[in-house]
Amino acid sequence: MNYFFRHPARVSSQLSTLVHSIPLEDNATLMIEYENGARGVIDVRWHSRVTRDEFRIRGTLGELDLTPLNGPSLVHPEGSEEIPPQENLHYPCIEDFVSAIVGGTEPRSSGGTALITECVLNEARIEAVCDSAG
Known about the structure:
Dihydrodipicolinate Reductase, domain 2; 2 domains
């Protein structure tokens, strides 16, 4: 989400442990509001036996649909494309990183972009702790 919409302005979260007997959430819902006004909702269930792998971006002019996220189809306002999935899901990320080192270019995901994601996760955890203490 941060790759598409850049800098988060606010994070709201609901984290809970419903099934597993460990001191860590097994489901989470986050709403992220970005500086540009876009909002994203992330909903994950590590305890569910129902397989979901959805990714959609809806805007005023249409929708990008990558459902299932690691599947071959990309649906967009101009139509759809079939993009063959990699045999190794992580290969494109590794290839980009190696190409950046060898070619002396900036990788798509840098320490800076990872830091923004970590800030969102920390904000979600802090809010959850504050809510449960309140």
